[in-house]
């Protein structure tokens, strides 16, 4: 058995110094993110202008639905990661998730309120299977201790952002010219393209034996007379109507309570695992949880780009024909593409000099950048014209700075989660990592409700809304700067928990 493993590794195809499978995962994720971010760029504006256009509390309703959808999208990755670990394996999970997400995007192209919530529900369930597993698949391509892993994740992260850059531009253009549903339809086509790339990688055997079901007997085992490999997709499909109902019940906001329960259950499971671990593994897992907590704070501010900041761009930024409010969602990914390689090279250069900061310091600096970018938005009101519109360069600068913060944190953290987690729960921990975004969307929802504008006028903006947004951005800046300072202060203690992980 050992000889077979050695020979497989020896002939594993390589490309540009990395496993060839990385580049198939790169394109699969690129197109999946195209679909996800293309839809996200349109979602808040679509709800404000169409789904809730007739009610004065449309900003509040939009904030609750957007937060509930975002929280469920990422919370579902915990369940998807577990099912992959125990039953399906990464390949089957990615296919199931991709098909459900494509279905959701195509249903979103139907002009109907019921279809709207059902479409979001399919994307929620699909993302739970797709997202944690394709990221874990990247880590599985590298042996333990392989120094190429960090740069491999950075390349993979570049694919995410190419999709995130192109999608808002194209889907936003289609929505502006022909209507929102054409933009949503293009997002669905993007998801199908991602699945085709992944399938071609399997056909060409670039993944070797990686990503298969962990136990064939469990995979084929019958429950209620149906093999689990068939039963799980059926249950996943049937979950969608229930999730659609939860999203549609935005006035009751059931999702908030359910989400608190999910968070408690995950924490309880992590404590249960920690009790069983030796001291060194326990310290590393504690650090993995802390890293996830820091990311929750960062994403809570970052994910405002798809909600409050998009509305701010629509109502209070002089876009001067440069791009539409939906298309401004492309700016973050544009800067990631421009900055990812220089910052990656910077870490490599500092490593050679023995000066590369440990992970806690990078996280502290990332939060400081988040605070700075919102401070810039908070002072933009001083440059507003008589119509309450601020110059575009404030928004441009904000996205530039938050993108630097993102590169200090997200690709580094994504890689460290796989290093710090016990091998038997890596996919689950990747799910917990994405759960940081789920908690973050609760922060997004809370802020969105605080900055909601009550009006039935879908063209509301200018001086009516400017101060609400700039005052809110100032408060966000203070919280982010404070959080960054605390993380930097306690970084020496956190370094001890990392052990031999940088």
Mean pLDDT across the residues is 87
Report Rg: 22 Å
Question: Strand arrangement, largest sheet?
Answer: 1-2
* Shape category: globular
Low-confidence stretches are 1-10
Multimerization state: single chain
Largest sheet geometry:
2 strands, antiparallel
Q: Residue share in helices?
A: over 70%
Structural class: mainly alpha
Order of helices and strands: HEEHHHHHHEEHHHHEHHEHHH
Number of helices: 16
Number of beta-strand segments: 6
Strand percent estimate = under 5%
State the end-to-end CA separation: 33 Å
Give the topology, please.
Elements: H1 2-10, E1 14-15, E2 18-19, H2 21-51, H3 58-108, H4 113-140, H5 149-178, H6 180-203, H7 216-220, E3 222-223, E4 226-227, H8 228-248, H9 254-276, H10 279-302, H11 308-316, E5 317-318, H12 330-352, H13 359-378, E6 390-391, H14 392-420, H15 426-450, H16 466-498
Parallel strand pairs: 5-6
Antiparallel strand pairs: 1-2, 3-4
In brief, what are we looking at here?
The protein has 502 residues and is an all-alpha fold. The chain has helices spanning 2-10, 21-51, 58-108, 113-140, 149-178, 180-203, 216-220, 228-248, 254-276, 279-302, 308-316, 330-352, 359-378, 392-420, 426-450, 466-498, and strands at 14-15, 18-19, 222-223, 226-227, 317-318, 390-391.
State the main characteristics.
16 helices, two-stranded antiparallel ribbon, two-stranded antiparallel sheet, globular, disordered N terminus, 502 residues, mainly alpha
């Amino acid at each position: 058995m050992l000889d077979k493993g050695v020979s497989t590794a020896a002939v594993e195809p390589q490309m540009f110094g990395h496993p060839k499978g990385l580049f198939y995962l790169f394109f699969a994720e690129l197109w999946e993110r195209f679909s996800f971010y293309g839809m996200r760029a349109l979602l808040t504006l679509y709800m404000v202008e169409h789904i809730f256009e007739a009610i004065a509390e449309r900003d509040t309703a939009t904030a609750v639905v957007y937060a509930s959808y975002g929280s469920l999208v990422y919370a579902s990755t915990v369940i998807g990661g577990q099912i992959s670990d125990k039953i399906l394996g990464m390949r089957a999970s990615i296919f199931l998730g991709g098909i459900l997400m494509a279905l959701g995007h195509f249903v979103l192209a139907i002009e109907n309120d019921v279809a709207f919530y059902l479409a979001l529900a399919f994307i929620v369930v699909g993302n739970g299977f797709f997202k944690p597993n394709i990221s874990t698949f990247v880590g599985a391509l590298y042996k333990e201790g392989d120094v190429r892993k960090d740069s491999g994740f950075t390349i993979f992260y570049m694919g995410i952002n190419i999709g995130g850059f192109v999608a808002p531009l194209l889907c936003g253009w289609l929505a502006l010219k022909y209507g929102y549903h054409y933009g949503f339809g293009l997002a669905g086509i993007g998801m199908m393209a991602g699945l085709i790339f992944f399938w071609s990688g399997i056909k060409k055997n670039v993944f070797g034996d990686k990503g298969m079901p962990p136990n064939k007997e469990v995979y084929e085992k019958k429950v209620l007379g149906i093999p689990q490999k068939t039963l799980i997709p059926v249950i996943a499909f049937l979950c969608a109507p229930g999730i659609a109902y939860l999203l549609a019940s935005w006035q009751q906001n059931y999702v908030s309570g359910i989400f608190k329960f999910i968070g408690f259950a995950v924490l309880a499971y992590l404590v249960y695992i920690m009790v069983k671990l030796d001291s060194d593994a326990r310290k590393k897992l504690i650090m993995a949880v802390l890293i996830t907590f820091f990311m929750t704070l960062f994403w809570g501010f970052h994910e405002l780009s798809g909600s409050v900041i998009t509305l701010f761009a629509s109502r209070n930024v002089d876009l001067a024909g440069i791009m539409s409010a939906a298309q401004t969602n492309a700016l973050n990914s544009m800067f990631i593409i421009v900055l990812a390689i220089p910052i990656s090279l910077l870490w490599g250069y500092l490593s050679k000099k023995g000066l590369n900061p440990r992970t806690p310091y990078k996280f502290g600096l990332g939060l400081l950048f988040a605070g700075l970018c919102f401070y810039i938005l908070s002072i933009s009101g001083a440059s507003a014209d008589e119509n309450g519109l601020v110059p575009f360069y404030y928004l441009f600068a904000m996205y530039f700075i938050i993108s630097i913060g993102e590169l200090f944190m997200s690709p580094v953290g994504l890689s460290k989660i796989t290093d710090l987690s016990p091998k038997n729960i890596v996919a689950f921990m990747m799910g917990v990592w994405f759960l940081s975004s789920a908690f973050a969307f609760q922060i997004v929802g809370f802020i969105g409700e605080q900055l909601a504008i009550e009006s039935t006028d879908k063209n509301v903006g200018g001086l009516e809304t400017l101060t609400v947004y700039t005052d809110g951005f100032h408060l966000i800046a203070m919280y982010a700067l404070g959080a960054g300072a605390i993380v930097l202060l306690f970084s020496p203690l956190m370094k001890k928990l990392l052990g031999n992980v940088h």
